[in-house]
Design a protein that fits this description.
- By secondary structure, this protein is of the alpha+beta class.
- The protein has one domain.
- Helix content is 59%, strand content 15%.
- The chain is built from six helices and four strands; from the N terminus they run H-H-E-E-H-H-E-E-H-H.
- A two-stranded antiparallel ribbon has the order 1-2. The chain has a two-stranded antiparallel sheet with strand order 3-4.
- A hairpin with a 2-residue loop joins strand 1 and strand 2.
- The radius of gyration is 14 Å and the shape is globular.
Length: 108
């Protein structure tokens, strides 16, 4: 189902699910040139949950998005280390995330 379809008939939780699906499908982390999509890493929903309020308030701001990415820890090595999500996203994915968020906000 498209974002447009969710936005036209859905309450907030379904809108967050639509945003999470879009993020999970298109955004990935890069580890040693290995790309892991955020839905496969189970990070898409937490990211959408934290970003959605910004969109709902029509307050999308790149600095705040980067701050959200910095505040999501990703456990590596069975939890022996944690790295901020922002450090694992290639710059092109951060730019694509902003594009997704801007488009999603326009449709709200």
């Amino acid at each position: 189902m498209t974002i447009e379809a969710f936005m036209s008939i859905s309450p907030t939780s379904e809108a967050i699910e639509a945003l999470a699906a879009e993020i999970g499908d298109k955004i990935y982390i890069d580890v040693a040139k290995w790309h892991l999509r955020l839905d496969d890493a189970h990070l898409h929903t937490v990211l959408a949950d934290r970003l959605y309020p910004m969109l709902a308030e029509n307050g999308l701001n790149e600095d705040q998005v980067v701050q959200v990415l910095q505040n999501i820890p990703v456990k590596l090595g069975g939890g022996r280390r944690e790295i901020p999500l922002s450090d694992l996203l290639p710059m092109q994915c951060q730019m694509q995330l902003m594009d997704i968020l801007e488009e999603f906000q326009k449709q709200m």
